[in-house]
Amino acid sequence: MTIVPEFVERIPQIIEEGKIYISTSVNTAIHLCPCGCKTEIVTPIDPSEWYFTYNGETISLYPSVGVWGAVCKSHYWIKKNQIEWSRTYSKQEIEEVRTQETIENQKYYDYLKSEKNNKKRISWFRRLLKLFDIY
Ligand SMILES: [Zn+2]
Question: Does the pLDDT of residue 1 top 90, yes or no?
């Protein structure tokens, strides 16, 4: 099964099957669940969420996509414009993945927060140096 990338400025109103719309202005990709259930799959492009690779022809999306919220519970990879079905996870495994994702997101946000604090600390320190004409 093929999925073709379409780079867009804005996410369109109507999402066509077999296409993945990618907007780098809002850092989001969207496509319909390839099982045919028409669930809209939104994958934010973000260090803590998904990233894609594009070689000028084909797109790959990482990590895999798990449609845990829909009835189909589809789980697949998008690799070089191809849908690669992964096995369906059990309810328990889905819970584990979700917990892991929450932990990782938390770690990432903590990291961002500490980065911000570091920057603040540096600028505060620089200002102090400037004040004493050292810097
Ligand atoms: Zn589906």
Answer: yes
